[in-house]
Amino acid sequence: MSQRANHPARNAVVALAAAGMGAAMVFGAGASAVAAEAQSAPLAVNTASAVAAQAKAQSMAAQEAAAAQAAKAQAVKAQAAAVKAAAAKQAAAKKAAAAKAAAAKKAAAKKAVSWVKPVTGYKLTASFAQGGGMWTNKHSGQDFAVPVGTPVKAAHSGVVVKAGPNGGGDGPAYGNAVVLKHPNGTYSQYAHLSKINVKVGAKVKTGQVIARSGNTGNSSGPHLHFEIRTSPNYGSALNPAKFLRSEGVSI
């Protein structure tokens, strides 16, 4: 076997060549790294911009949603206020209608319970508690001098509890007579009648004609004897003129 000859000059060339290749490899790797970093920088910037844009878009969307929600809440509030106002208006109208109805009812009731004069076209003669030879005791009512046949009206609504001759049971001095019981617990009597138009148990209205005036019984001339009583019977009379005045009727 032969041995390779040792040539110093050639060995130096080879060494230099090797060093050059190493340098080239080293510098080449560094250049590649710089290029890669240069390429990744724009990508990082673009990603950050996209994230920022997305965040801004989300923020705007959230603001729009909040504004829409606020507008919806305001609309609901306005609708509730409108409903409340309508309800209040309806309640006020209902209250006004109820007040009007109550006033009308009260007026009707007042009209229904009002008292009236038992006759018209009269002249007052003997008055309550007046003394005289015509009566055993003092006069128990108020006399209205009227022609025979004058319509006699119920001074107030009520029920007939007495009707007929002999004072309807109070005695012959009254002649033909009628006694009414009224809702307030008082009674009215109409005596010396020429004709009676009602029967016991009949209901009569205020102002209804219940008889005709006359001159029957203990009478000195055609007239109506009118009494207000606390019971249906003789002996419980009140001052009829004073009572009628208390009910707004002046005779």
Fold and architecture overview:
The structure is a single chain. The protein is of the alpha+beta class and 251 residues long. Helix content is 45%, strand content 19%. It is built from two helices and ten strands. Strands 1, 2, 3, 4, 5, 6, 7, 8, 9 and 10 form a ten-stranded antiparallel sheet that branches. The longest helix is centred in the first third of the chain and has 106 residues. The protein is rod-shaped, with a radius of gyration of 60 Å. The N terminus is likely disordered.
In short:
The protein is an alpha+beta fold and 251 residues long.
Strand proportion, as a percent range, falls in: 15-25%
**Contiguous helical run count:** 2
Helix content: 40-55%
* Class computed from helices, strands and strand pairing: alpha+beta
Distance between the termini: 177 Å
String of helices and strands: HEEEEEEEEEEH
Radius of gyration: 60 Å
As residue ranges, the low-confidence spans are 1-5, 7-36
Based on Cα principal axes, name the global outline. Answer: rod-shaped
Chain-averaged pLDDT:
83
Major sheet characteristics: 10 strands, antiparallel
How many β-strand runs?
Answer: 10
